[in-house]
Amino acid sequence: MDKRGLDISVYNENVLSSDAAWQAIKNSQFSDFIILRRGYGVNAIEDERYKEWYERAQSIGIKDISSYYFSYATSPEEAAYEAEQYAQMTKDDGLALDAVILDFEDNAKWQRYGYNPSPAQATAHCKAFLDVLKKHGLNCALYANQCTLMDIIDWKSLDCAVWNAAYSQEDQIRAWMFQYTDSQYIGNYGPFDANVMYG
């Protein structure tokens, strides 16, 4: 059976500052799972709300909790370094996570340094990151948008779960999970990124 859930970060803090917002999530169809940003970048900057929201999600009965890390790396070597820090953060937290996820998408650092990876470079970037997570015995996954997955990353070679993102389109990957909107409202609360996890 398919499940539905949200992915959130500190950028949602204005919406998620009240108990009422969390209660609305609990009573919605999006309470099957939640995915929290753990951090981002080569300098391992932590999401300020991660631990608080892990506890909040547990308090409303969400047991399926995962985290993701937004890669700013501009080489496979930097990607592996980021992943080591992510793995250490995860171990230091001591939290029970369903999956740890590489978020691979365009960002300001890539634009600043002119990093526009070829298919081979993009796949090597993801492999370096994910191989570190696997080495640490973590259940890992890859997040990217549909165009990137179809035209750039050889995701089938990476041997991991895949979380595809495409808004107002059909899921042409049909892997582990699909992020289909960034404009989901739950009552008066939102907008949220909404996802379906295939059963």
Please give a structural write-up.
33% of the residues lie in helices and 29% in strands. The protein has 199 residues and is α/β, with parallel strands linked by helices. The chain has one domain (3-197): Glycosidases (TIM Barrel). An eight-stranded mixed β-barrel has the order 1-2-4-5-6-7-8-9, surrounded by four helices. It is globular.
What labels would you give this structure?
199 residues, alpha/beta, 6 helices, TIM Barrel, globular
Q: Which architecture name does CATH use?
A: Alpha-Beta Barrel
CATH homologous superfamily classification: Glycosidases
Percent in strands = 25-35%
Physical arrangement of strands within the biggest beta sheet = 1-2-4-5-6-7-8-9
What does the overall shape look like?
Answer: globular
CATH topology: TIM Barrel
How much helix is in the residues? Answer: 25-40%
Distance between the termini: 4 Å
Overall mean pLDDT stands at 96
Number of domains: 1
Based on CA atoms alone, the radius of gyration comes out at 16 Å
The SS-based structural class is alpha/beta
CATH class bucket: Alpha Beta
- Biggest sheet overview: 8 strands, mixed, barrel
Write the H/E string, N to C: EHEEHEHEHHEHEEE
Counted beta strands: 9
The number of distinct helices, counting runs of at least 4 residues, comes to 6
